[in-house]
Structures are given as C-alpha cells and as structure tokens.
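Example 3.
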Amino acid sequence: MPNSSQDGVAIEFRDVRFRVGNGLEVLRGVTLQVERGETMILLGRSGSGKTTLLKLVNALHVPSEGEILVDGKATAKWDPIALRRGIGYVIQEAGLFPHFTVARNIGLVPRMLGWPDEKIAARVNELLEVVGLEKGMAERYPNELSGGQRQRVGVARALAADPPILLMDEPFGALDAITRDELQREFQDLQKRLQKTIVFVTHDLREAMLLGSQIALLENGQLVTQLAPAEFRESNDPRVQRYLRAFQDNFTPTDGDAR
Amino acid sequence: MNILQFLHDNQQQIVELTLEHLGMVALAMLFAVLVGIPLGILISRRPAWDKPVLGTANVIQTVPSLALFGMLLPVPWIGARAERLAVLALTMYALLPLIRNTYAGIKGVDPMIIEAGRGMGMTDRQVLWQLQLPLASGVILAGVRVATVISVGLATIAAAVGAGGLGEFIFRGLASVNNQLILAGAIPAALLALLADVSLGWIEKRLTRQTHAAEVAVG
C-alpha cells in the first residue's frame, strides 16, 4: 500500500504519453507532481485527457511513454492489485455494485484485504457516520438510495481501507445542483480532517476553485498550467482566461455539460 | 373410449415414459450447462473466439432435429446406444441459447461497474465471480429456461431412434393413425415444458429482482 507520511511527492507524472488503439494521442507529454495531502484538480473539457490521466495512477491504463510514480515507484513496477487496493477510487454515479448491500459495497476492499468480519462491520458503521448516512442504510441496496446517498456510499467505499491517496472522477457530476453543493461542502470538511492526497477530475471551474489546493488545466492532452486557485483567477494565460470567462458568463455553467 | 379414459388406463406406461423423457432432458441440460456456460464465459474474455464459437452453435441449431439424430447414428460409441445419442443431440441443441445468453449477459454488465471493481483492486477472477456472473445470472438463467423448454419438445423425437420417452406414444400413434395415442404423448410433454418454463421463470425472477430494480433506478 502506498505509504501515508505527510511530506514529499505522492504522485508524479513524468512526460506521460498515452495513445489509444487507433493511434490517437490522448495525452501528449504531461509532467506533473502531486504533493502529499494536496487536492490536485485536473480541470478540462471533455476529451482533454483528464480522466485518462487519473486512470494512469491506479494502472487502469498503462502509459505508452513516460512513467507515473506513486510513492517514488513506477506504476509499471507495482503489483496493480496491491496498488489499487491502496488507492481509493470514486467515480461518477459512484459505480456501486447493485447486487451488494451498502455495507458490502463499503466493506469491499477491507474484505479483499482479509480483515476479520467484526472489524469490517465496525469500519462500515464508522464510515457511514463519516459520510453522514444513518446506520439503517447499511442493509439497503443502491437502488433504494437517492443519487446523493449513493455518492456518499461511493466516498465511504473509497475511504474504507484508509488509503493515503484518493482518485475521484467527477464524483459529483451527476447530482442536482443543491445536492452537489451539499456534498462539496462536506467533502471540504472531510478533507480538512483526513488530509488525504486527492486527485480530482472535473470540468466545473467552480468545483475546482472550491475544492482544489492546486488546479492543473488540461487541453488536448497537454498540461496548460498548474496553479493554486487564487493564482488561477489572476492568470493572464489566454487559455485560463477563456475558461474563466466561460464560467463568468453563465449562472449555471455545469448543467449543460453534466454527463 | 375417450382420451381421459385412455390416459387413465395407460397411467403406468405414461409415468414411465415421462420419467424417461425427463431423465434425457435433465442429463442433456446438465451437460449443456457444464459446456455452454464456461464456453460463454470464455468467449466473453477472448474477443477473437466469439464469432467462431457462436457461429458453430448457430449452425448446429439450424440442422433439422430428425436429421441430427440420424447423422449421429453412425458415430462410434455414441450411435451404439440410442439413449447416448439422444442425450448428445439434445445437448448440442441446448448449447446455443446457453453460450449466447452467458456471453450476452456478461457483455451486458455496465462497464462502469466492472471498472469500479478493477479500480478498487479486484482480480479478474473476483470481477468474474463477484460482479459479472451474479449480474448476468438473470440472462444466463433465461438461456437455461429457453434451452430446457426446447429440449422437452425435441426429446419426443428421440423415440425415432429408439431412445424412448414420450415420443414413443406419438410415433406409435402416427403409425397407427391413433389420435389418442398421439395425445397421450403430446399432453404430458406439453405439461412438462410448461412446468419447466414456469419454475425456471420463477427462479429467474427471484434472482434478478435486486439487480433489475437497480438498472431501472439508474436508468
């Protein structure tokens, strides 16, 4: 499992290129460092390569060129199963298993790691509280939950084995604006308490500004710039400017593009 | 003499032939499940194999059943005993729905769910046993159901090669132009098919309630 000490670089992309089957280059040489305890936002429009970049971290994709270091060790050298079990993964619509109860969904990684049943049960209860769900939810199935509740379960499942790194792929993208707002705020509180290293994919500038400690803007498979939210707002880079303008002009900027 | 009277008088033989019929179908379905489901799983993981395997099963399905029984007659060991031949022929017919449904069921599982599983560190085996097979179980069982109902009907033809079963009555009735004899075979066979359909349908429904509801909820 990636280790959890609090200083240094947790994830490093070194000149990463990624080509898909037909030769199209989705990532064209990305170099980026994610510090421990940081929330790195990968911001960009559809097709910018942000999700691909995320999936390279837990070896769901293998780079065509370059390498990704997790805790200083290239993902190619990690046992992919061990690597993934040590990294929390949250995706849009949560990707919950419909035939598993909430408790079994949350306890998935601990069970694979061989925790005893009592410890898993205790951890599930603890996590339900952390993400603001009632204990009674444990025996429900995902289809009996609202979208917001499902997403909370998704976060709880990612946190279950207490991984030092979390990957989140538009986790709040499919939610209505009010629920999204609520979950974003809770996520902020949670991050203050847990101090995980988080890589968070979104196309929503407001979400990026709210949740990120660093924002990496991607365009056409390349890193445009990497800035803290305050710097991002002040940037003179025309590509950043364009992004800022798009979100200024529109009061509900994300709705049209959510999924 | 009416048909009910006839059924009553020949009760014992009807029961015997029904059991024989059931035995053939059960054995054939067992073999078909043991071969068809693993084959379906295999081709869902080896994209290059799906067309040849499904194509072959398809071709078998298009062979007229009486011809298939006849074609198997000269095959050594198989052709030596009518029961073996009948069970093999029924197995071959049952393969297509089983392979196809297993394949389609696995392919039909939401790729987001599979990726979530892999992303959380499930091994290929865990993805198969904990995600793909349970989520495909409804579709696979539907294949078992279709195959069973087809087999119950086809098994009547087994009597043509002397393998017994309810087809005995039907063929004897055809030869002697005796409608009651034909019905004595056809009615129990139809009831068997209906029973298989209803009971397997019930299991299918129970198995899929949860996942199906989930699909509806997610849209």
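The CA atoms of residues 6 and 152 of chain B lie 23 Å apart. Chain B touches chain A through 24 residues (CB under 8 Å).
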